[in-house]
Structure formats: structure tokens, C-alpha cells
Amino acid sequence: MNKRLLWKLCYTIAAGTVLLFWAIDVLTQRTEQRMSFIDVVYQQELTLMGQEAERIYTQQGEDALAVWLEALQKRENTWAAVVTSQINPLANGHLSEQFLQGFRLGRSVTWKIHLYFKENPIMDLTFSDGHTHFLIQLPQRMRPGAYLQYTQNLLQFGLPMVLLIVMSIVLYRHVMKPLRQLEKATRQFSEGQYDVRVKACLGGRNDELAALAATFDRMAARTGKLIIRQRQLIADLSHELRTPLARIDMAVDCLEHNIKPDKSLARLKRESENMRGLVDDTLTLAWLENEKPRLNEEEVDLVELLEIITSDARFEYPDRILKTTFPSSALLAHSSHRALGQAFENVIRNALRYTPEGGTVSVTIEGYEAGFEILVKDEGPGVPEQYIRDIFKPFFRVEKSRNDAANEIARDNAAPKNMVLEDGHSQTKQTWNGGCGLGLALARRQLEAVGGCIKAANHASIGLEMRITLPA
Fold first, then answer.
1. What are residue 418's DSSP bridge partners?
2. Distance CA 393, CA 229 (A)
3. What does the pLDDT look like over 391-404, one tens digit per residue?
4. Which CATH number covers residue 72?
5. Domain for residue 123, yes or no?
6. CB–CB of 445/288 below 8 Å?
7. 295 CB neighbour count, 10 Å cutoff
């Protein structure tokens, strides 16, 4: 199996996991970055504090500034001061203009605040003279990142949970869609809809679940056919048993009234044997169709087997000519004596039965590279072409449509009207002796069980030809 579903799930989970970590990292960094700066409103408020301190210092003096600073510290619950900075270089050093402009005793209100430090930073607002500074420890109310912990919890727990739920839903829907189709089809099949199929409902999907759907379709097709065949077989068997049962009822009635008791007993015996054979053949056919056995445990010599069967057939039909053309040996490595014997016997006896007295039936074994072909040709009336494939169906008799067949066979009014009987052969209505139509059906199933096949075709002149192919 190609394990497409496995790889698809692996790729999805791997990609989802990578996406999750990437999203958490990016969002955490961006959120922390945005939360590390003092709010603009507080920046403006701190700037105004610095301007107010400079105004009081320059206009009212240090005493007023001291009072203002004390009140500010109490109000904001923090530390604040105004200091001067005089930087004198040593060793004839020189202070660059860039250094003097950028020098600060604390942080600018626009700088980033480190959120992981417990102590609030000192903010520096320089007066216009450049060497006087208003310093204030950032009030707690102005500290950024108040919701950092909640945001981190949300990103570390909430975001993964949401992404995993979404990924789980996607995978669940992907897996459950074909399973729901399979469940629906199984329910419909259990309700008697034997033509239901699943694979076509999955579109172009090609993974383990699609393979499961295809397996279900094959199972449903085979099981549906078996159920339909069994129902048809039971119906046909019931129909076929009615006639001998009716004759048995008549014979019993005759015995009860002492009417021709000898003939009535003979009739009972004959009908009982016919019914037993019919039931046995039907059970054998049902077993072959249901189990599909492979009968390949024996080595069979076709020549030896067919010589025995043709010898018995000559004894049973002394008024027919049975020609055989066999090689010295024709071995099948994996086959079954019983299956081949019953199949050949059905085909050969069928050909002899419908060949008129004095007619010829030929049986030929021809070898080829992959196996052997057995040809059985008779001189019977043949089979109408529209029924040539149906003669291998159980209980099929073209006799059921004998009016149409008769019109096709005998368009010339001078020709006698024929009808096709058991196993597909036709006879005149006056000589038909019935049959149950299981011979060729059994033969085909038995040949299939050993890996062979059988086909029928009409001769160009007269008669029917059975071509049996068997692998060596």
C-alpha cells in the first residue's frame, strides 16, 4: 500500500507544529516589543513635568522647585530630582558635539523599557541649557507591559489550543468523510441495496481510505452477486421441483387407488432419483459459486481421463459415432480428477444426447505453449446465436422462448419447428425429453475451479462446438 494517508497526516501535523511554534515566537516578540514602550499619553505627561520643573526653577528659584518636587513625589509615590551635569574632559580630551547632545543621566521617555526588571527606570528630561536634568523614577502607573503576563498565557496556551483544535477538525473531516460514506453504503447494503458503491463518491482521492472503499466495492459486488444468484437459484430450484413433485403426487394417488401399482412404483423411483440428482447438482453449483474453490492439488493426465469417459460414453450411446484424437500424453500439473471428470462427462454426454442416431461426435486434444485445448464437436441442431452465452447459466433453457427460436430457425414453413432444450441444444418438439439445465453451468464452474474456461460456438454447417482451455 502506498500509505498516502500516513504521509498526508505526517505532513499536516509537522507543518502545523512548525506553524504553531513560528506563530507563537513571532507574536510573542511583536507583542513584547509593542508593550515595551511608555504610552504616548504618559510620554507627554512626563514631558510636561520636565517643562514645569524648568519653568519653576528659572522663574521662582530652587525653594519653589523643592516644594514642587516634594509634592510630585508624594502624588506619584516615586522619586524625583533636578540635577546639573558638568563633564570636564581630562588629558586635553575633547567632547564631541554628538556626545554632548546625546548625553543623559537617565532614559529618554521614547526609549524601550525592559519589562523583566523589577525596578522602574530613571527618566531624564533635559532642560534647554543642556546640563540641567529633571530626573524621575517612572511612576508605577506609567510602567508599560501591565498585561504582558496575560498576553503570554494567551499566546502560550490559548493560541496552541486554537490551532490544534483547528488542525484536529481538518484532519477529522478529512478522515471521517470517506468513513461516513462507507458507513452509509454499509447501511444501505444491509437494507438490500446491493448496487451501492463508495469509491465513486470519493472523487480523485487515492489513499488508504480510498483503497478501503475500493475493497468494499469489490466485496459488495461479489456479495451482491452471490445473494442475487442464490435467490435466483432457490427460485429456479423451487420451480424445477414442482413438476417431479406433481408426478410423485399422481403416482402416490395411483398407488392409493391400486391403479397400475408397478408402473406407479417405477415412476416414484425414477422421480426420486431425478430429484436427488437435481438437488445434488444444485448444491454442488451453489458451493462452486459461493466458495470459488481452487482445485489444483492433483496431477491429471487428460488423455487417460478422457479415454475412460469416452469409453463409457460409447457403451451408453452405441448408436452414435464417437471419434477421439489424443496425443500420447497431456499432463496437467495442478488440477482435479473429479472436477475435470464431471465437467468433461457433462459436455460429452450432452453432445451425444443431442446428436441424432448415426451422427458423429468428435473429441480432440490440442496442445499449445501455455496448456491444452479440448474440442468437443457434435452434429446436433446447434443453438440460436442470441442464446450462445446464456446456455452456461443455471437452469437456463431456450425452450422457454421456443416460439421465437422456432421462428428464427424455421423461417421456411416447410422446415420442421424446433426448440432449444436443456443445456442449449434444440430438438423437435415431439422428441424433447426435458432436463434441468444444470449440466453446462456445472461444467463451466468446475473448469473455472481448475483455472480453465469453456466457450461455445455454432459450426458453419451443423452442430455445436465446445472449446475448453486448460493451463498446463
1. 428
2. 10
3. 888 777 665 433 33
4. 3.30.450.170
5. yes
6. yes
7. 19
